[in-house]
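Practice record 12: protein with 2'-O-acetyl adenosine-5-diphosphoribose.
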Amino acid sequence: MKKKKLVVLTGAGMSAESGFETFRDAGGLWERYPVEQVATPEGWAADPAMVTGFYNGLRRQLLAARPNEGHCRLAGMESDMDVCVVTQNVDDLHERAGSTNVIHLHGELMKVCSSAHPDDPRCIRTLGPDDAEVPVGATAADGSLLRPWIVWFGEAVPRLEAAAREVETADVFAIIGTSLNVYPAAGLVRYVRPGVPVYLIDPNPVRLPSGCPVTVIRDVASKGVARLHEALSRQEKKP
Ligand code: OAD
């Protein structure tokens, strides 16, 4: 029998229990680092050394982090379902937990690219533990400054179409740990077909586009994903 397709949209809350701060909660990352300085092309142009240092710090944190139970449970659900993870997160914790189909909407922290042509595949390089600390002034293969492969505010989201195609073929859709404040990612909810069950896992209230019926699991990701898995398994067993 064909497996049901589960598409999951994840955000910073998914990785909170792995030690990462979210962005917009009290004390979140954007309170300490002005977003326009570290996550826009203008911020990069104004001070590439500072931006390089900021992402080097995040990479150090990522190398020391581990996937949490939520990431692991989601990866484990691949034995029962066809799972696609669409993530706004730039960490690689879904992949390290074992998820095999992950779409990164906002880029990947462990990748760097050309600042002249960020999407030129010839200049995109994956870093490892030994070269995760990018030296200030390092250049890409085309001679331009090496920049983080992150989709900054004001930039196009190249994987959006691919993500939308996944969402519109979902049999079940789940939203985990995102405030749904950032578009176009938040707009993916609108691609869910009518009648497809939508679940939302978050310890705090999140506003969804109006008219979207949703089952809310008011919990952190580790426990919430387990509750989702149990709910879906119960439904499968129903005659
Ligand atoms: P936000 O910081 O806006 O939202 C995080 C969400 O996670 C909130 O709804 C929290 O209630 C929830 N949360 C907190 N702890 C949680 C936990 N343990 N388990 C589950 N949920 C928890 O982060 P995002 O919505 O991911 O973009 O932000 C979207 C984008 O804005 C990011 O990808 C980033 C940022 O600017 C870039 O950097 C390009």
